[in-house]
Amino acid sequence: MVMQExxxxxxNQENVNEDTGMAKLDVFEVQDxxxxxxxxxxxxxLRVLQCVLLAVCAVLLLVLIAxxxxxxxxxxxxxxxxKSAIDSLNASMLSASEVNKGKSQYLESGSxxxxxxxxxFEDWELFQGSCYQLSEMEExxxxxxxxxxxxxxxxxxxxxxxxxxxxxxFMRDVGVNIWIGLHDIDEEGDWRWVDGTMVSAMPQFWDYKxxxxxxxxxxxxxxxxxxxxxxxxxxxxxxxxxxxxxxxICEKEV
Length: 254
Ligand SMILES: [Ca+2]
Ligand SMILES: [Ca+2]
Prior knowledge:
The protein is an alpha+beta fold.
């Protein structure tokens, strides 16, 4: 208490005009709850500047907050648009995937159907990549050849034991001689298939002592090949007189 009174007395001595008893300064400020002193012009100006700076900072802060908020809103909008675009893209990809899946299933189904489909006409028989038909009619060899060609086919050409077995099955079912695409019309003894292939270059299934070019008198020799009903699977070919009327087998490659 004594120290406070001493401080107050000292303050009056320094800041109060001794003649007028007035304070040297116009402004007093409370330094603490027990002591007051006058405020200088610089301090006032400084305080005003501080207030102005604070106001400016507050305004800048508000502007910054507004800018960040606006930016955030725009970024949010952009993200929303990107999400919509991605969803749309995913939907398109899913749709395209479904379409491709459908196409694959369709093509696979079509392929399976094509594989299972018999490429031969109804009354033709499929065997190892060719269609075969035994004629109902009997024809001379040359007419039989033309009849097959009119169907886009040819008289049967036998190039393997498996194909010989197929031909023999036709002959065995009907029990008569059958023309095949075998001849030596162009040159005696030069046996060829109707496509020009030399028979000697292929497996041969001639009957016993055939081909014998048997002389039927009046220049009627044997230049056309047939399946002989009295032969066998492995020895069933005979050279025969071309003007005989036999049934015949047509062959058409698939
Ligand atoms: Ca002959
Ligand atoms: Ca013969």
